[in-house]
Amino acid sequence: MISLLHRACPGGRNDWPANHDATHNFSAFPPRSAGASPTGTFPLRSSAPFCSNICFFSCLTAALRAFAPSRLRVKTFLPLTLLTVLAFAPSARAADFMIQADVGDRHVEGRPTHWSADRVQMMLRDGQFLDFPTAEARNFRRTSDRFRPYSAGELRTKLFAEFGPGFDVTGTGHYLVVHPKGQKDRWASRFEDLYRSFVHYFSVRGLRIKEPEFPLVAVVWGNKQQFFNYAATHGVNIGGNTVGYYSPATNRVHLYDATAGQSGANWQHNADTIIHEVTHQTAFNTGVHTRFAGCPRWLAEGLGTLFEARGIHSSREFPNRTDRINRQRLTDYRRLFPKEVDPAYLGELISSDRAFDRDISKAYALSWALTFYLVETQPRRYAEYLALTAARQPGEPYPEAKRLADFTKIFGDNFSMLAARLSRFMVDVK
Ligand SMILES: [Zn+2]
C-alpha cells in the first residue's frame, strides 16, 4: 500500500469547546483524522490517527528515521527494478537526480530522498512528498542528473489539469492560488501579501529567510461542501467547523470561501484562516521551520497564533504594541492560567507535545503567551532559537532531552524564573 504520510494542520475554527467564543478560536483541533494522498488516487492509511501539523512532522520524521543508513540495503543485483535505477547513486539517501515512475495510477517525477528494498520516498517536482512500496513502481527511469522543481508556469498547467474547468489558477509571485473562476480579485493577492509580511517581519529581526524551493500552492474551494468533499476523498478527516488547513505532505493550504461569494460578508472568517495557515506554509518553506525533522509544536502554533494579530501580520499599518496582542489568545490565557504559570508545565510544553494531547486550548494559550513574551522581550534570542531548531537534518530525531537542551542553550535552564517572568509580563499585557 502506498502511504502519503499526510497529516493536515487545520486552522480556522474547529470543533470548539462550547465555552469558546465562536469568532476567534483556532485552538481546538479535531481529535482524529486519517492519512491521505495528494491527489486521491492512492490507497490511504485511513486508520492513522489525526495529527495536526506538528504531529505530522513527528510521523514524517519517524518514517524518515526508518531509512537510517545502517538499515539500508540497496539490492544492486536485481535487474530491471527501481532499485537498479537508484543504485547508481553513491548513497541511499537524498539523491539529487530525478526519476520518473508510475505508482498506482499516478505518473510521478521527483527526487528520491530515501529508499530501501521495501520503500521509496520521493520529493515530487511540485513539492509534494510521496512514500510508496518499491515493488509498486513501474515504468521507472532516471530522467535527469539534477532535481528541478516545477517552475510556476509548469505547475500552473498541472493545477489547471488537476482542478478542472471550474477553477482558475492565479500566480502572484511566490503563490499559485487555485480559486473559483472569476474570483481572481478576491483571492490572488492576499496570500502573497501575507507572505511578504511574514518575510518582512523576520528579515527586520535578523532571521535569514530562504526563498521557497517550490511555488506555494493555495486552494480556495468555492463552498464548504466542495472543501469537505475534497478532504473526505483524500482521507483528511477534519472537524465540521474547520475552514482551512495546511498539509505538510502536500505542502498546500486548502480553505473555502466562508462568505459564499457575498462581498463583505464575514470576510474575517476567511482572513483569520488564511493568516494562520499561510504562516505555517511560509515558515515551513522559508527555513524558519524545517519540514522534515520535527518541530516543537508550541513553536509552530505559537508562531501561527502570533501572526493572527493585526499588529504582526500587518505591522506597517498597525505599528502599536496593543495591535500585536492576540486578544482571543489573551482571553484564553487569563482564563486558563489565573495564577502563575507552573514551571513544570512550561518545561513540558517546551520539551514535548504532550500538553496538546491533554488540553489543547491550554497548550495553545501558553504557546501564544510564551511566543509573544519571547519576541517582545528577547527577539534576537527567539530568532536564534528558531534557527537552531530549523538547522536539523531531515529525519533527525528530536528527543525531549535534545529539545530541552536546545531551548536552555538559548534561554537558560531556570524554568522557575522563566515562568515567573512570563507570568509577570502577561499581567501587564493589556
Ligand atoms: Zn496551526
Give your account of this protein's structure.
The protein is α+β, with helices and mostly antiparallel strands. The chain contains 15 helices and 11 strands. The chain has a 6-stranded mixed β-sheet with strand order 1-10-11-9-8-7, with helices on both faces. Strands 5-4-3-2-6 form a 5-stranded antiparallel β-sheet. Helix 6 (267-285) packs across helix 7 (297-306), helix 9 (327-336) packs across helix 12 (360-377) and helix 13 runs antiparallel to helix 14 (400-411). Among the domains are: 150-285, Glutaredoxin; 297-427, no CATH class. It has helices spanning 53-65, 82-86, 152-163, 184-203, 224-233, 267-285, 297-306, 310-313, 327-336, 343-351, 354-358, 360-377, 379-390, 400-411, 415-427; strands at 9-12, 98-103, 106-115, 119-124, 129-133, 137-144, 167-171, 175-180, 216-221, 242-247, 252-256. Zinc ion (ZN) binds at residues 9, 11, 53, 276, 280, 301, 304. Residues 9, 11, 53, 276, 280, 301, 304 line the site of zinc ion (ZN).
